[in-house]
């Protein structure tokens, strides 16, 4: 049925659960004269953008409809600031159907004061199933839903267990005190296994193991902004890297792709993260998104050491520093 209405509530044909999308936000219709698909803003409050260009009425929020804008295959429609739709146009039997996909910014609900469902999934297995002397601790913070986080929390440990079940691989890690290749490979296999187009998650995995001398080693890999910090004999060690778009190291990585961020640009396609598991739709649209993890140096913890680790999602790190988190653990241990 035409036209196709995009909005936050029924009877819109495509309902987007985003507080920045108006009840009836925009419309897609077929122009029989030009034989082209067209997009028109229906007087939305927060505007409609086609390939980052505004197509709403110049007086935003005036409730006046915008002028129709011609659509082409591969176009990206943005409703408000976060909901993205990809346009796919195919010619089949003289008909021109349109397909749309949507990715929504998880921070929208926070900015609007809504209570968010829990999308964090934690994991702890020591020893790692089928692999003696190895253990794994992790946290996976979902956005767009908890599907990706749940999938990764199941699949990543399975891949790590399978890789380390090979005696030569396990012995190499214990002999050289380095599991970086194992962690990178497990992250790659996990990303290849999941098929979440419009959901994603952070991933922080702390792998520990014991060598022949029964010294413990810890090494971390991460995607996103869920962080891990260790304290070894009173020394604080950051085990992760911040992959938010505002991070200096992440902006430098993006610049190396040949498509640097503009000054003040703090989001990619509405997301504040540039590295994550999943979000396959966004990664297809923008090659600056990545699933290449940061891997820390291995930390040696002898039997004489006093050590602990704190692993958490941004729900903690947004309100407390890593230094303060370590102090609190020390205070609790002393009491």
Automatic annotation (TrEMBL):
<dbReference type="GO" id="GO:0046872">
    <property type="term" value="F:metal ion binding"/>
</dbReference>
<comment type="similarity">
    <text>Belongs to the PP2C family.</text>
</comment>
<protein>
    <recommendedName>
        <fullName>protein-serine/threonine phosphatase</fullName>
        <ecNumber>3.1.3.16</ecNumber>
    </recommendedName>
</protein>
<dbReference type="GO" id="GO:0016301">
    <property type="term" value="F:kinase activity"/>
</dbReference>
<dbReference type="Pfam" id="PF00481">
    <property type="entry name" value="PP2C"/>
</dbReference>
<keyword id="KW-0378">Hydrolase</keyword>
<keyword id="KW-0460">Magnesium</keyword>
<dbReference type="InterPro" id="IPR000222">
    <property type="entry name" value="PP2C_BS"/>
</dbReference>
<keyword id="KW-0808">Transferase</keyword>
<dbReference type="InterPro" id="IPR015655">
    <property type="entry name" value="PP2C"/>
</dbReference>
<dbReference type="Pfam" id="PF00498">
    <property type="entry name" value="FHA"/>
</dbReference>
<dbReference type="GO" id="GO:0004722">
    <property type="term" value="F:protein serine/threonine phosphatase activity"/>
</dbReference>
<dbReference type="InterPro" id="IPR000253">
    <property type="entry name" value="FHA_dom"/>
</dbReference>
<keyword id="KW-0904">Protein phosphatase</keyword>
<keyword id="KW-0418">Kinase</keyword>
<dbReference type="InterPro" id="IPR008984">
    <property type="entry name" value="SMAD_FHA_dom_sf"/>
</dbReference>
<dbReference type="InterPro" id="IPR036457">
    <property type="entry name" value="PPM-type-like_dom_sf"/>
</dbReference>
<dbReference type="InterPro" id="IPR001932">
    <property type="entry name" value="PPM-type_phosphatase-like_dom"/>
</dbReference>
<keyword id="KW-0479">Metal-binding</keyword>
<keyword id="KW-0464">Manganese</keyword>
